[in-house]
Amino acid sequence: MRDAERPDTAYLPPMLTDRQAWAAFEARDRSFDGRLFVAVSTTRIYCRPSCPARRPKRENVAFFGQESDAREAGYRPCLRCRPDAVARDAEAVRKAVALLEAAAEPLSLTTLAAAVGYAPHHFQRLFTRDLGVSPAAYARALRARRTEQTLEEEASVTEAIYEAGYAAPSRFYSDAGERLGMTPSAWRDGGRGVTIRWAVVPSSLGPLLVAATDKGICRLTFDEDEGALRRRFPNADLRPADAAMTSLIGDVLRAVEAPAAMPDLPLDVVGTAFQQAVWAELRKIPPGETRSYAQIAAAVGQPGAVRAVGTANGSNPVAVLVPCHRVIRSDGSLGGYAGGLDRKRKLLDAETTGGQGTLNLPI
Ligand SMILES: [Zn+2]
Question: Which CA distances in Å does 297 have to 30, 181, 316?
Answer without folding.
Answer: 16, 21, 15
